[in-house]
Design brief:
Layout lengths: L1 H6 L5 E4 L2 E2 L10 H11 L3 E4 L5 E3 L1 E2 H12 L6 E4 L4 E3 H11 L6 E4 L14 H7 L7 H15 L4
Parallel strand pairs: 1-6, 2-5, 3-8
Antiparallel strand pairs: 4-7
Length: about 160
Amino acid sequence: MAYHRYHGLETRIVRIFNTYGERMRVDDGRAIPAFLSQALRGEDVTIFGDGKQTRSVCYVSDLIDGIYKLMMSDYSMPMNIGNPNEVTMLDLAREIIELTKSRSSIVFQDLPQDDPKVRQPDITKAKNILHWEPKVNRTEGLQRTVEYFKTKLNIK
């Protein structure tokens, strides 16, 4: 915003929220790659804390569509792009175990001190200004991501 105000140039500012999909690194360290890698390898799936903290995850093609629509607009203020549908970490781990047909167990470890309890974007501006909202539901996006991870991990 400072650059926009000082130089008077057109800018677009996107606030990207948790995104997932194909081409993520297996060792990325974020929840979905960690859960997928562990479940596909038949390892215990690790949850930090009690698993009640929530995240909102957006499939990559939806994120790209939102960014594109923002870039094509004349809106210069910050814009949240993400999926507002929350899921607990425990439910996400269970969903991934089910989708991968894994026999993995869920194990709990201490929650890091800086881990937020809730992460959910308000996409009201994106809906009203860009006429954008996510289209790919979590199950469909996770299924696509599972197939990619199977290939990366050489799992049939």
